[in-house]
Every structure is written in C-alpha cells, then in structure tokens.
Specification:
Pfam families: ABM. The protein has helices at residues 15-30, 58-65, 68-77, and strands spanning 2-9, 35-42, 48-55, 86-91. The chain is globular and about 35 Å long. It is built from three helices and four strands, in the order E-H-E-E-H-H-E. The longest helix is centred in the N-terminal third of the chain and has 16 residues, at 15-30. Strands 2-3-1-4 form a four-stranded antiparallel beta sheet. The protein has a single domain (2-91), classed as 2-Layer Sandwich (Alpha-Beta Plaits).
C-alpha cells in the first residue's frame, strides 16, 4: 500500500477556492481503482492544504496522475499556488 501526501500552499484569498476544487474531484478519485483513501485537510495556518491518499499500488496512483481528473485539478490549482507542491510517497502495511 502506498501512502501519498501532497502539500500545497495558497494565498489566503485563494484557499477556499483551492479546497473547493479538491472537494469537487474527491468523489471521482475515491471511486478509482486502487484508491483506498483520499482526504483533504486545511493547514491550521489557513495558507495551504494537505491531501492524504492511500493507493494499492504506485501504478494505480500513476493512472490517476495521467487522468483527465488530475489534469483539470492541476489546471485550476497551479495558478493559485504560492509555491510548488510537495509530494511524499511511503510504503505502508495496511492491517
């Protein structure tokens, strides 16, 4: 199982819009093959978000990253980001 976290920063004026874009795609992503968990969290500083994802395999996560859903999300978010997103991938045992 892959644990993938993505952290992205936004200006205060853009945070609600960014969360809305993630929320709009969340149900679609959760239904994708291999997605076991997909949640969005707002940083306490209210200047960014963290997405916590569990994917059965890296290949399934790569299918998501090649999807139209991911492309639309990136097109909507990139102009709002104040810095490049940080993605971390870890291997976990799901018990």
């Amino acid at each position: 199982m892959k644990l993938i976290t993505v952290e992205a920063s936004f200006a205060a004026k853009d945070i609600n819009s960014a969360i809305g874009l993630f929320t709009d795609q969340a149900q679609t992503v959760r239904k994708m093959s291999g997605c076991a968990h997909y949640e969005i969290y707002c940083k306490p500083s209210n200047d960014g978000i963290a997405i916590i994802q569990h994917w059965e395999t890296m290949k399934q996560f790569d299918v998501y990253r090649a999807s139209e859903t991911f492309a639309r999300l990136g097109a909507g978010l990139r102009p709002k980001m104040t810095s490049a997103p940080v993605t971390t991938v870890a291997e976990i045992d799901k018990q």
